[in-house]
Amino acid sequence: MSDQRRLSDHEMDQLIGRLLQLGVLLAALVTLVGGVMLLAHHGSATPSFTTFRGEPDHLTSLGGIVRGLRELRSDAVVQLGIVLLIATPIARVAFTLVAFMVQRDRTYVLITLVVLVLLLYGLIYGRA
């Protein structure tokens, strides 16, 4: 027997639930801050709905978002909040993978690893 204490399934579920709660809360807080900044800088501007404009190029990559954050751009702060929201369930899968590895459950490690690889592949290469 080792001195390490293993987490029960209930404790693991509680940790995963807390991870999801904190991820969503952090994403909401960052998005709210960015939204307030956006309104403070551009709140009085008249929107133009005659032409569709997609996201600017600087908001379509993590590098661009980081550069925008360094410049304190409000749209980059909002975009970071969205990225955090997307990253939350991916972090849950990664956390679950580690938990299954610690428990030495090879079947679930393999399944979770496949899910994580598919999520990351879709995130990185899945441009519509």
**Which structural category fits the helices and strands?**
mainly alpha
- Kindly state the percentage of residues in helix: over 70%
As a percent range, the share of strand residues is under 5%
Major sheet details? none
Distance between the termini: 51 Å
- Element-by-element helix/strand order: HHHH
How many strand segments?
0
How many individual domains? 1
Mean of residue pLDDT?
A: 88
* Rg over alpha carbons: 19 Å
Shape: elongated
| Helix count from the secondary structure assignment | 4
Low-confidence stretches: none
Give a nutshell description of this structure:
The chain is 72% helix and 0% strand. The protein has one domain (10-41, 55-125).
How would you describe what is shown here?
- The protein is mostly helical and 128 residues long.
- The protein has one domain.
- The chain has helices at residues 9-42, 62-70, 74-102, 106-125.
- Helix 2 (62-70) crosses helix 3 and helix 3 packs antiparallel against helix 4.
- It is elongated, with a radius of gyration of 19 Å.
- It starts with 8 loop residues before the first helix and ends with a helix.
- 9% of the residues are buried.
- The mean pLDDT is 88.
Features:
mainly alpha, 4 helices, 72% helix, single chain
Write the topology of this structure.
Layout: H1 9-42, H2 62-70, H3 74-102, H4 106-125
Helix pairs in contact: 1-3, 2-3, 3-4
